[in-house]
Design goal:
Length: 170
């Protein structure tokens, strides 16, 4: 029996040694590679997330820059449309003023001619010569002073349009 107990004791010691040896082998053979693989996976994941965040920031910035550029282009286009409309309005105003001046001068000439004829002392020939009929059409020839005044209004209006346009582009 003592031999049996000695054999069992030796077997027990052998089992304990075997278990201890397997535990010592487990760390470098199984645990460490798994841990290193997990660390590598975590590092790769962190790098991927950092790249994704940088890329998302780049895309956001590019989108903001594109939106800003499109907004500025739209503002410039709208300013150009307003400028062209302002110039067209100035031209229409000048044409209207010119036509009104032509009509007023022609009407004044007719009134003066009629007043001249109503006076008994003046002859028709004198009245016709002194108060000749004027062209009342919108494209008549205006006296220099009146034409200069009307054209000056157009110049001022165009300058105003230019100033508004420049202010809108800044």
């Amino acid at each position: 029996m003592a031999a049996r107990i000695g054999a069992l004791g030796k077997l027990g010691i052998a089992v304990v040694m075997l278990v201890a040896a397997s535990g010592a082998g487990y760390y470098p053979a199984i645990y460490a590679p798994q841990r290193d693989a997990q660390r590598e996976a975590a590092r790769v994941l962190a790098q991927t997330q950092a790249y994704a965040q940088r890329r998302a920031a780049q895309v956001r910035l590019a989108t903001q820059e594109r939106d800003l550029a499109e907004g500025k282009a739209a503002e410039r286009a709208a300013a150009e449309v307003r400028y062209q409309a302002c110039l067209a309005g100035a031209s229409v105003s000048r044409e209207t003023s010119w036509a009104a001046a032509c009509k007023a001068i022609a009407e004044r000439a007719l009134t003066n001619h009629a007043d001249c004829l109503s006076q008994a002392k003046l002859s028709r020939g004198y009245c016709d010569a002194a108060y000749r009929a004027r062209d009342g059409s919108p494209n008549c020839a205006l006296p220099v002073a009146v034409a200069t005044d009307v054209d000056g209004g157009l110049t001022r209006a165009r300058r105003h349009c230019q100033q508004e346009h420049e202010a809108a582009l800044q």
